Amino acid sequence: MDKNRFTTALYWILLVVAAIVAYKLGGLWVAEQPTASSAPRTIDFQLDGGVTSAWDIPPFYLEDTEGNLHQLSDWKGKVIMLNFWATWCPPCKYEIPEFIEYQNEYGVNGLQIIGIGIDDPDKVKNFTRTLEINYPVLLTTSSEIMSKWGNSNQVLPYTVIIDREGQIRYIHRGQLSKLSFEHEIKPIILE
Questions:
Q1: pTM (2 decimals)?
Q2: What domain range is 16 assigned to?
Q3: Three-state SS for 54?
């Protein structure tokens, strides 16, 4: 086999291997996007130790952008959309305007979005003010908080849906699409 054929064959083999690896890794980073025909589903979900209820996870106490201390149980009885994000994360920035819309539209139905900005507090405060975020944003500089919520890889953005009874019903790694919201989250809000 001459050198050009060998180089071409090696190129194609590496390209195929790279495509397979990218496909396999893609499943680790982004939740499967539902199709238009997908039916809403309830996920039988457990965190480490078999935890299925948000109220069984050790509570966190975090300040909001106004300096008020909060814990998740402040919003018991609501459908909680707990979103972990950072100002340096482009997909996080892209989904926040849609979250503002969801809070406006579905807040009356019991939806409570709670952002957890894992970043420099001043950057999160400025970003929150600039985008006029209409839901509570809590501050932390440590991404370790996500491990308790099933995200030991600390992928951002990361969203956890908790129903009115405190059951963890859906987890989404990566940017949340409108289609995912419509098929996975909206049915929980309207239950």
A1: 0.75
A2: 1-30
A3: helix
